[in-house]
Amino acid sequence: MTLTLLGIESSCDDTAAAVVRGTDVLASVVYGQTALHADFGGVVPEIAARAHAEKLDLCIEEALQKSGLTLPELDGIAVTAGPGLIGGVLSGVMCAKGLSAATGLPLIGVNHLAGHALTPRLTDQVPYPYLMLLVSGGHCQFLIAESHDTYQRIGGTIDDAPGEAFDKTARILGLPQPGGPSVEKAAAAGNAKRFKLPRPLLNQPGCDMSFSGLKTAILRARDSVVAEKGGLTPQDQADLCAGFQSAVTDVLIEKTRRAMQAYLALNPEKRSFAIAGGVAANGAIRDGLMQVCAELDTDFVAPPLNLCTDNAAMIAYAGIEMMQAGHRDDLTLSARPRWPLDQRAAPMLGSGKKGAKA
Ligand code: KG4
Ligand code: ZN
Q1: Given this model, what pLDDT does residue 351 score?
Q2: Residue 9 CB–ligand 1 contact under 6 Å
Q3: CB within 10 Å: which end of the chain, N or C, has fewer?
Q4: Which of 34, 113, 157, 166 to mutate to test the pocket of ligand 1 (most atoms within 8 A of CB)?
Q5: CATH for the 128-305 domain, from 3.20.20.70, 3.60.10.10, 3.30.420.40, 3.40.50.1860
Q6: Ligand 1 binding pocket includes 115 (Cβ within 6 Å)
Q7: Which residue is closest in CA terms to ligand 1's atom 10?
């Protein structure tokens, strides 16, 4: 039977609701909060939680209206129950519980990372097992997805996520936020070789990554140019951006190559590698990863950007797979600030400005 679910997402700085039937996204609505946090240099958890609480009803109403369905016509309600900023996750979970209690619809608590990790199945029906790279402002990890509830995390960042590093680099160089697109744009006119920047952990075994040292290196390089010339020219900015982007790309490519070895050792019937997260929009990174896939005769799957970044369609879809497998939650469902997808792997350290890292 094809299930139709409402999805609700509020774990970071996007309030989102969606209605998904099988693999058809009937409606997906995202209310961003970028403007609310713009003055603070990062997401302020209390402001985010309040904005989610204020906007969730409107967002859900709009998604239902766009889908042409009413609550009684749905089969269930899926909500992000973690990991993320706890106030926001709580807003979504309480809202979903209220709707479930009022309508009698089944409630499913979804791991936000599972939402991202299952997106290639929503968009491209990719068969298990596949390799996934989640790369955004808050996440950076390699996962082998074996089923809707079995994931092997084979590496991830030990400090900042790459999106966070792009954003900080933009701030250091006086470029607008979000940093990813402005750094990429500036990098197009730059010489990546002018500044010697580190490739942290590149030669260490394994698939773990580190991006915070790179940001410090950019700060030092900027300071030495400013000390020498009294300021940065647009060409200096472009060269620093190009150097930074090329360092991040080199690290992601090399670690992807290694992650692919671990994945291919499972002898998957169909070899697939998928990306998700805002950083996946970066042309240089995307081209590099496509190249690795071509070398290893593996399908490269890149869902459309609106389904790569935070959204509720991925939550609804993950809920559909979970419900089909017999999973149900009840009104005791709780919000979890930390909730690693791979329960066996050692926990990752730290929590970024965009929430918990694993
Ligand atoms: O997935 P996302 O929308 O939000 C979460 O982090 O959850 O990702 C946003 C991140 C930001 O850090 C942004 O700077 C980065 O993705 N980003 C990019 C590009 N577009 C967005 N990074 C590099 N290149 C881009 N073109
Ligand atoms: Zn996310």
Answers
A1: 47
A2: no
A3: N
A4: 166
A5: 3.30.420.40
A6: no
A7: 137
- Which letter, b or e, does each residue of 159-179 get, where b requires 16 or more Cβ atoms within 10 Å of its Cβ? bbbbbbbbbbbbebbebebeb
Query: Do 140 and 276 contact (CB within 8 A), yes or no?
Result: no
> Is residue 277 lining ligand 1, measured as CB closer than 6 Å?
yes
**CA Rg value for the chain:** 20
pLDDT digits (tens, 9 = 90+) for 149-204: 999 999 999 999 999 999 999 999 999 888 999 999 999 999 999 999 999 898 88
Measured from the alpha carbon of residue 117, the closest ligand is: 2
For atom 6 of ligand 1, the residue with the nearest CA is 137
Q: Answer yes or no: are the C-beta atoms of 355 and 43 closer than 8 Å.
A: yes
CATH 3.30.420.40 fits 4-117+307-356, yes or no: yes
- How many Cα atoms sit within 13 Å of 348 on the Cβ side? 31
